[in-house]
Amino acid sequence: xxxxxxxxxxxxxxxxPRIKERPVTTAAAPFGSPVAATxxxxxxxxxxxxxxxxxxxxxxGTGETRVMALDQVDVDIARxxxxxxxxxxxxxxxTLMHCLAGLDSxxxxxxxxxxxxxxxxxxxQLTRLRRDKIGFIFQAFNLLPTLNALENITLPMDIxxxxxxxxxxxxxxxxxxxxxxxxxxxxxxxxxxxxxxAVARALAAKPEIIFGDEPTGNLDSRSGxxxxxxxxxxxxxxxQTIVMVTHDPVAAGYADRVLFLADGRIVDDMSxxxxxxxxxxxLRFSGDSRSAGLDSRRAG
Length: 300
Ligand SMILES: Nc1ncnc2c1ncn2[C@@H]1O[C@H](COP(=O)(O)OP(=O)(O)OP(=O)(O)O)[C@@H](O)[C@H]1O
Prior knowledge:
GO molecular function: ATP binding; ATP hydrolysis activity; transmembrane transporter activity
Bound molecules: adenosine-5'-triphosphate
Pfam families: ABC_tran
Helix content: 25-40%
Number of strands: 10
Low-confidence stretches: 1-45, 293-300
GO cellular component, one term: plasma membrane
CATH topology of the domain at 80-102 and 131-291: Rossmann fold
Strand order of the largest sheet: 6-7-8-3-9-10
Largest sheet: 6 strands, mixed
CATH superfamily of the domain at 80-102 and 131-291: P-loop containing nucleotide triphosphate hydrolases
CATH class of the domain at 80-102 and 131-291: Alpha Beta
Strand content: 15-25%
Mean pLDDT: 82
Region (Disordered): 1-33
Keywords: ATP-binding, Nucleotide-binding, Transport
Radius of gyration: 19 Å
């Protein structure tokens, strides 16, 4: 995983399409009950919060080697929005994402996906919830080389024995610009196209939320921009909720909101970020740690 802080490149910052305002509740609500407000127009009265953490602590190790990877984190992830998580290496970004996605357990506190508290679920229930409600996009595209693009996109639903919603699938394929590449195998696609297949695979099952772990980390800046544009469109046009861990201020500039972590805590929260504003904030972390005589970038 690249640790480098990437600088915005000339012309690399998108002119972001203006986001349709959705009446969402972003204030932290007491999570004993998930946020009761509903997003306007959402069918079925889905809560405005797609995921949330309350007083979440995650410790690794014991005694002198104990590390507090997350230290009493409270956060709500608004539905239908694109949230980026940033912070120095070792600040807890991946741990927060893994705990929110139910890939890792918490030491204390509560995690919610939609209206379901996942802390305390049994393994089997958690596996089912991850399968049904969560999409993942990783730095490595994780496509099966023997399957074509369409088969890769529908694979998770095939495994779950679910029939894809054809109209939705067509819309997703159209949104990520893959309509003329569906019969291609991964080796016949560029890195950017492969990651778009992975994005379509995550979107196809209509998950409650998609988590991306440096989804553009392996791509050149042009392919990265392509993928980020598709993530942006999936939020604006398909109403998807996305949480993305990134080291890249340009990538974070595509989000609606950036959460900054340091030493396992959320230390800043930026709305409608620009790459320059994110970069400036990230550089302050280096300044902070230098002036404190510490290196907050622990070896990862
Ligand atoms: N399995 C583990 N065992 C012990 N310590 C761990 C483990 N996973 C993470 N940590 C520690 O928890 C802290 C947070 O790690 P995490 O990977 O969440 O940070 P990060 O911000 O994602 O880092 P990076 O940007 O380098 O990927 C670090 O100090 C790390 O060394």
